[in-house]
Every structure is written in C-alpha cells, then in structure tokens.
Amino acid sequence: MCGIFGYVNYIVDKSRGEIIDILLDGLQKLEYRGYDSSGIAIKGDNPNETTIIKRVGKVRVLKEEIASRTHSDLDRSKIFNSHAAIAHTRWATHGSPLTVNCHPIGSDPKNDFVVIHNGIITNYKALKSLLESKGMVFVTETDTECIAKLFKHIYDQNPNIDFNQLTKQVLYELEGSYGLLVMSSHYPNEVCATRKGSPLLLGVKTDRKLTVDFVDVEYEDTKKSENNFGLSPSAALNGGNGHAGLRTTGSRAFLTEDQDGQPSPVEYFLASDPSSVIKHTKKILFLEDDDIVHIHDGELKIHRLNSKQIGEETKRQIQDFEMELNELMKGTYNHFMQKEIFEQPESTFNTMRGRIDFDNYKVTLGGLEQWMPLIRRSRRILMIACGTSYHSCLATRSIIEELTEIPVSVELASDFLDRKSPVFRDDSCVFVSQSGETADSMLALRYCIERGAITVGVVNSVGSSISRQTNCGVHINAGPEIGVASTKAYTSQYIALVMFALSLSSDSIGRRSRHEEILKGLQKIPEQISAVLQLEEKIKKLCNDHLNKQKSLLLLGRGYQYATALEGALKIKEISYMHSEGVLAGELKHGVLALVDKDLPIIAFATKDSLFPKTMSAIEQVIARDGRPIIICNENEGTISGMDSKTMAILEVPLTVDCLQGLLNVIPLQLISYWLAVSRGIDVDFPRNLAKSVTVE
Ligand code: UD1
Ligand code: F6R
C-alpha cells in the first residue's frame, strides 16, 4: 500500500541534505506497508524549479541514487530557511512499477505542480481524454498524472487563484479515493494536502508551547460543478475564474507566534500513518475526508471541500500521541500475524472488490480477460507453488476441475523441477505466490516459459518477479503480509482461484445455478470470517489448557478439507514448533491409526458436505481408541453436539458452500497456531529458521 510523507519547515534553517534525510527516514518508516518504488520532490536551485528523484525498488535504492549525485548536481549543503517537500512509496496499481510511473508525478516537464497520491481515481480515463483534447501530453500510465495536469490546467486559466481554492477546483473534478499532497513552484514553500478514503495526518513541531490545541475548520459556500465531467466539462476546466462563493464562517488558523505576535519557527509533517511522524513530534492531528490542509508561511489552515453540514465537527484536535512505533504499526494487536488473521474480513473483501458483480452473478478478472479464450482451450492446467500457496491450489483444484472440466494437477515447485516434468505449449501453468519472488516457483516459471506454455500468476505483490514475468494473472490485493506465517494471503489466493474457475467457466449455461450458489457464498465470506474470529478466546484457552503441553498433533480432513488439514499442520509446525501432520481421513486406517491413544490431540474437520458421513466414521474410529478429538463443525450440528463428553473441544463455524468451507475452517487453525506459539513464548512474527520470502532454491 502506498505511503505518503511531506515535510515543511518555516523559519527553521535546514540544509538540503537534512531535508532529504528527513524525507528518506519518513519513507523508511512506511516501508512495512509494502511498496515497489519510491521518490521525493524538493526545491531546485532556482526558486521556480522543483527537483524530483525517484527509483524503482527499495528506499535504499533511492538513497543510493541520491548519494551518487555530485555536488554540482545536488548541493546538499544549500540552506533553506523555509521549504516544502513531499515523498512517496508506491505500491503499483495503475501502471507497472517503472521509474516514470513512480511518484512524485509532475504536471509537465518543468514540474509546475507535483503530486503524490494514494488511492485510485476512477474517472481518470475521462479526465485524461479531456486534458488530452486540450493539448496536454501524458507521459505515465498512472491515474495520478491527471491530478497533476488538472492543477496546471486550472491554474493556467487563472494564475491569481489561491492554492487551496485551486485544490478545491481540482477535487471537484476527481472521483475515487485519494490521500494527496501537492506542491508547486507557483506557490513556493506551500503544500496542500487532502484525503478521501485514504488516511492522512499531520504532525506539528515547534519549540513554543501551543496556545491552542485545535485548528478551526474553514467553510465556504462553494458549489460543486454539476456538470458531469467528460460529457459536459465543468466551468473550472473551461477556464472559469475558480473563485468560490462567500465565506460563511470565519476561523482562526493555527499559527505559532512569539510574545510580540511575530511568527515563530515551526515544522509540519504530513503522512499516511503516524509511524513516520512520531519520531519528530507527538503532536498529531488526524484529518477527515474532504479536509483540505493548506500550509503557508508557517500557518496551517483546514478548509472543507463542501459547505458545512448540520452537526459537523468544526475543529480538528491536535492530540498528544503517546504510542510507540512498534505498537503503532501493529495497531491493537500483539503481532503482525494476529493482525493479519483479523484483517481477513477486509482482505477477502478486497480480493473480490470490483471483480464480482453480485447482482448479475458476473466475475471479471481484468488481468485474464484477453487470455481466457486461450486458457479455456488448454489441455491441462498445472498449478505450481510452495508451502501455503501450494495448499491454496490443493484447496481449489477440485472446483476448477468441476467447473472447467480441464484436468488440473497441483505441483510443489521444487518437486516439479526435480522431476523435469513434461510441459507442453497447450498447457496453462498457474503460479501462486504471496511474495511473487519465491525462487523455486520462479525457476518453475522459467522452465514453463521456455516450453511455450501459457503462464498465469496469482500473486499478492504487484511488480514482483512472478507478476511481471507471467503472461497474465490476478493480483490478490490482500495488502502487505508481514508475519512470516502466511494467513490472509491464503484466504485471498483461495478466493482468487475460485474466481479464476468461475471466469473460466462463465460461458457454461449448465453451470449457471452452481455459479450463483458459489457467488452467493462468496458474498457472505467476509462476515462469516468475522463470526469465526469470535472463537479466539475459546481457542486461546484450549491452547493454554491442553495443547501446549503436547509434542505432536494430527489433523484429519478429506475432500475439500484435506488441504485445510495440510495448511493447519504447516501453520502449527512453523509457528509453534510442534510436530503436526495433516492426514487424509480416508487413509487413517491404512497406518496412522496406530498413533491414536488418549493423549494425542487430533483435530478433525466435520463440516457438512457430501463426505460428512465418511468423516464421522473416521472420528468414531478415533473415539473408539480413547482419542478425544477437537472437532471443527458447522453451527448446531446435532450429531456432533451430542458428543461433547467424548471430545476435547467442539469449534463451530458457519456453513457455506462446500468448495468455500475451507476458507472458514482454516481460521480456527490459524488461531490455534498463533495462540499455541504465544503460550510457548515464541516470537510469532519471526519463527526460527524461516524467512518471509524464500529467494533461494
Ligand atoms: C487493474 C489495476 C487496478 C485497477 C483495475 C481497474 C493494476 C496492478 N491493477 O486491476 O488498480 O483498479 O485494473 O481498472 O494495475 N498480472 C500478471 N501476472 C500476475 C498478476 C497480474 O501478468 O501474476 C497482470 C494482469 O494480467 C494485468 C495486470 O497485471 O495485466 C494487473 O492485474 P490485476 O491487478 O489483477 O488486474 P485488475 O484486477 O484488472
Ligand atoms: C507458510 C509460508 C510459506 C510460503 C512459501 C511460499 O506460512 O508462508 O510456506 O507460503 O514460502 O511463499 P510465496 O507464497 O511467497 O511464494
């Protein structure tokens, strides 16, 4: 997810080098959000010039680039008494991670206006065509460029316009979401910042005691152009004077002054989250959607995009923010893994967002559309991955086969390579990876490319090697996953693969009712995951009271739940270091039953599907040998509720469609592995011997 950082100093001497270091440090604090490129914009040597430096890759690469600049190119010692600068880490959405697409983005070759942006401008295509029709030339593939160009276009019509009025005129034209910072050589040392649906906050640093700890919001009776942009362009775009109507409420700006009423030194920090600001100041003000911050001559004003609504808060409080950095990034959670487990209602929703039309039962995977006819004609589908990603392939293999009638094989990347498995031109090879950088999966991808197969990626990290080198694919959009144990990526991969199956078979009339059933099921998944997360306390107790003393654990599943059993076992061993094994319930009697006694904990998946009677028979066999299983079943499942005294625990999850049940059943396992590790005092986010991204064979 992109990160925003801005820095303004007013009558505080700072060398250019110091300013750059503040920006780079700010960006480094935002690195945890995940990104693929970064950049900064600072004042050039001439007052009318802005210098932009940006690079693909880590902030370290940007730092190296800056360090390589010569003194005559970038004089680090030059002192600025007042200065405005902006910086950004980008997680590519519109436009691949190329230097030209990195932010800050300038409005024109002279960078009259420079912007950084988080979010998506949904009407950018219409804006782009309109601006192109007015002679503007776009050089990036981003939606953000239309914002920079809008600033310039409207300014050029009316150069006397105030910076915040100009910002309003631009915002009236934008649809979508944004966290936005803008600077301009026409308004030296000023910054405008605004947000809608993307977080943005501001830190204030001054040696003086603040006389007020709030900022009044300024309202103006402005009217948004009612013209629908693109069809009938608004007044501003056509050179309206941009002057907004009458001010209806006056207000005090936030200004630091000394006893004689003279302005005093102040620094402002703007950021998408507090982690990059709290090092400098704990005085933080959180902005609301549609606030427009204007920093000008040490003064901070907050304007509103629209006129005042009844009951609207007219002040923004400057708070003393006491949280420490580590605490902050994890929110109220103790570990990233726990945070990511609890993010799943949101991350699964994000995987489907904009791709499923639940009213018309339609799935659109933009990244696959053009390739669909070719993939449909494939002789086989090979799904290739490692670890948890491999399990998401196993979990969805049968629904892909059922809906497409194309044979699917699921391969562990390393084994696939060891076997030098044959691959043909009419095979479609699907590579599933959270990081998109796993060496074994990458090698397998190259192997398939060399053999002329169609390659499809299902990847979380935009701009990663697998995402770039596959012919086409789907980004799972789960957001950055930091905990070494993969949790939210699993459920999002699972959903992306189900959507893949639905898309591939969308032309089948005979499967329409099955499609509808699955889509109705998918729609409910986020809220059903929330319901399963309520089991946390019960699971924590189960881990503390029973499981943490054990040495080994078995997980029994069959059909769709075999993959859940394997994934649960992997989660438990990697995080809690307890030996655990996923067993196909049908295989119990072929050997594993020898292990069963009254002590060995056994987790069995007995959610309701066509294999339920067979699973129950396996559970009976365990109980007959004095085993006390932990049963994961659907709510109010009569057959199982009566078995209370014979089980160690019964964990109830909501019922969903058979092929989606694994999405809900895996959540208690993620929680068990988490709480087992915590009760054993293990550093959950950094388990021994493991790395988040395995880039070696
Ligand atoms: C894309 C945009 C998204 C925008 C949406 C609507 C990107 C990254 N996503 O999403 O911001 O809201 O259009 O217009 O720009 N790809 C691979 N291999 C992979 C994964 C993806 O080649 O492993 C390719 C796809 O084929 C596609 C591109 O990357 O060309 C983007 O994929 P994806 O983000 O899944 O596409 P959309 O959901 O359409
Ligand atoms: C387990 C885990 C690993 C990864 C595996 C593949 O929790 O995280 O098993 O799933 O290393 O990684 P990606 O998905 O990045 O290719």
UniProtKB/TrEMBL annotation:
Record domain SIS: where: 371-510, 543-687
Pfam families, per the entry: GATase_6, SIS
NCBIfam families: PRK00331.1
Enzyme Commission (EC) number: 2.6.1.16
Catalytic activity: D-fructose 6-phosphate + L-glutamine = D-glucosamine 6-phosphate + L-glutamate
Gene3D superfamilies for the chain: Glucose-6-phosphate isomerase like protein, domain 1, Glutamine Phosphoribosylpyrophosphate, subunit 1, domain 1
Task performed by this protein: Involved in amino sugar synthesis (formation of chitin, supplies the amino sugars of asparagine-linked oligosaccharides of glycoproteins).
Sequence ranges assigned to domain Glutamine amidotransferase type-2 in this UniProt record: 2-298
Gene Ontology terms, MF aspect: carbohydrate derivative binding; glutamine-fructose-6-phosphate transaminase (isomerizing) activity
Record protein name field: glutamine--fructose-6-phosphate transaminase (isomerizing)
Gene name per UniProt: GFA1
UniProt xrefs under PANTHER family: GLUCOSAMINE--FRUCTOSE-6-PHOSPHATE AMINOTRANSFERASE, ISOMERIZING, GLUTAMINE--FRUCTOSE-6-PHOSPHATE TRANSAMINASE (ISOMERIZING)
Cross-referenced InterPro entries: GATase_2_dom, GFAT_N, GlmS/AgaS_SIS, GlmS/FrlB_SIS, Ntn_hydrolases_N, SIS_dom, SIS_dom_sf
Pathway(s) this gene product operates in, as recorded in its UniProt entry: Nucleotide-sugar biosynthesis; UDP-N-acetyl-alpha-D-glucosamine biosynthesis; alpha-D-glucosamine 6-phosphate from D-fructose 6-phosphate: step 1/1
An individual GO BP term: protein N-linked glycosylation
Keywords, comma-separated and alphabetical: Aminotransferase, Glutamine amidotransferase, Repeat, Transferase
Annotated PROSITE patterns: GATASE_TYPE_2 (PS51278), SIS (PS51464)
